[in-house]
Amino acid sequence: MKVYFNNSCKICKAEIDLYKKEKIDEIDWIDITNNELAEKETSKDSKQLLRRLHVKDGKEVLQGAAAFLSLWKKMPKYKFLYNFFKLPIIFSLFSIIYEIIAFFLYLKNKKQLKKTN
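Predicted structure:
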């Protein structure tokens, strides 16, 4: 599993650093900052990668709330989050709240996108 995250965002980095402490060997942590390989591996452009967390497990690329579920499912310490947030009504609410927070983080961090003329 590969987790594509924005290491330049202080909030994103702080959360991912918590997950990295779990030392799950099957998880590769990929910083999306100016990372063309991440764009190629996910078939997402830098704007799409910056906008949400992405997880690639096998050939499937998940984003946003679904990406978090996939990540938490692999982490014994955080599996309780998976079990709670996978419930249909909870997942719907989680998805909406995640999108709102992710949008504001995107606005805060979009200056790091490469300038294209």
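Summary: The chain has one domain: 2-112.
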